[in-house]
Amino acid sequence: MFDHPSTSGLWRFIDRISRPWVLAVLMAVYLVFPLFLFPHAAGGSNSMPLDLMFAYSPEQAYAQLASFGEQGRVNYARTTVAVDLAYPVVYTLLFAVWLCLLLRGRNRYCSYLSMLPFAIFVFDIIENAGILLLLANYPREIYWLALATSVATTIKWLIVAPVVLLTLGLSLWRGIQFLNSRAPLGVP
Questions:
Q1: Which residues are within 8 A (CB) of 137 and not within 5 positions of it... i.e. 6 or more apart?
Q2: pLDDT in tens, 109-126
Q3: Domain annotation covers residue 20
Q4: Which domain holds residue 35?
């Protein structure tokens, strides 16, 4: 039914760029977002952005947007366009490369797992588009759009959790394998 990922151009691209130094660069670029870009992009608003919530009703979405105030909504839209559209590209490549490196040489079906971050990407982009549309139409309340945006947000987080757990779990497992393969100190 499905072709092996190695026949897909996307998988070949990820496999080709999956090198430890690429992973290190992606990790460094990823850290720029939460450490520098997101804190300064909020524009002083203490309200939680919709994309960081797990789920929300249309009423909660519009209450959050109202709590931002006019300048906060402008800042949120700017952040979504300027920062939050690049962020999914970075973390998708980060986790795809990381998983590809961890799963390289394993069962051929494991290759599918390195494509999971692209599912997060799709729902994050849908979510960002929904948020931008909610902001562009504010104060007009479009309940179906708020609900659809919340569904995209929830699906995104439901995929993020297993991808992060899988990546960290496999990293730990590979680390233990590496340590076990080394001879104990003082033993010839």
A1: 145
A2: 677 888 999 999 999 999
A3: yes
A4: 5-181
